[in-house]
Input
Amino acid sequence: MRSLLTFLVGIVFGTGIALSGMANPAKVINFFDLAGHWDPSLAFVMGGAVMTTFIGYRLVLRRPAPVFEPTFDIPQNRKLDVKLLCGAGIFGIGWGIAGFCPGGALPALGTLHPQVVVFVAALIAGMLLARVLLARVAARTAQPAE
Amino acid sequence: METEFTPFASLAGGVLIGLAAVCLMLLRGRIMGATGVLAGALMPASLHDWTWRALLLLGMVLGPWIYFAAAGQLPVIEVPASTPMLIFGGVLVGIGVTLGSGCTSGHGVCGLARLSPRSFAATGTFMLTTAATVYVLRHVVGG
Output
């Protein structure tokens, strides 16, 4: 039952992405192309998603715990740092070049469209690369100073 | 490349994305972020951690086929970028979402909905750099 419901949540997300146009890089890039063929659709996607989540979270978080887990696991960090802003900045540059964000590309992978497969492979490579770099930096800073 | 303005389909799609985020919080108490789901599925902390993410991903990839069943065609996917640029962009997205701890779904939807200052800063930053990148590629270099 737990597995089936989690699987259904994935289907709802994937169907939403497919219907919204977020799986289509041409559409996503046109949202950001204010000086060209501007397509405001993405504002409706974000508006619908944020409003629904805003209301839904307020109802759900009144509960003492989620249905299938002992506690809610929500990030508590509220501080801004350079890593967050640099990461977001780099993500935006990549999003502007490729037109896919992870949430748009993962459901699109279901079509086995070759360009989606290429993008997701590059996405995974980038994620692994960043982890290796972060681990190196952490190891270096952990070494005792001379 | 022009695309059709689709306010109703996009709004309905957005509501479904939000509904999925709310259900995941209700059932598992977790943020619906594509970055976190993928990272956790590739490098799981435990079997339990891996299972729910794998199930979620399995559901996600069926989304376009549910759309196909309802609309009679798969969702349109047009990629304006060349393959080398697509790869370059993909690697940058992977690095960026790992350093920035999230993407459009985690920060842009779930984070904004819970009024997280980090998510507001991240979303503002990536919207700005995306728009700047598109402007440069379309109207400065590619114009």
